[in-house]
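Write out a record, fold above all:
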Amino acid sequence: MSSSEPAAVVLVLTTLGADADAAAFARSLVDERLAACVNILPAVTSVYRWQGTVEQDREQLLVVKTTTDRLAALEARVRQLHPYDLPEFLVIPASGGSAAYLAWVSESVG
């Protein structure tokens, strides 16, 4: 990527327990310019295998909008703030979308 090209926009997924303060978590990421926006989807049920046992928990899903050049800092901060031993951190490329919205994401974290 040349220095004149903006970083690519990505979506990052993570979850928090149902009782966690997801708004405070999200606000930290936005305040620190690691995310342009964080959507909080409450009341998801997660079924997963952890340490050899199938678990089921109520969680909140966070959808974080950021750019590729902020990913390392975002991941480090998520690990600092997150209460889980192994927080979900999945990166999904935003391969399209409104040029104006993608530019806003880039400006918001730049």
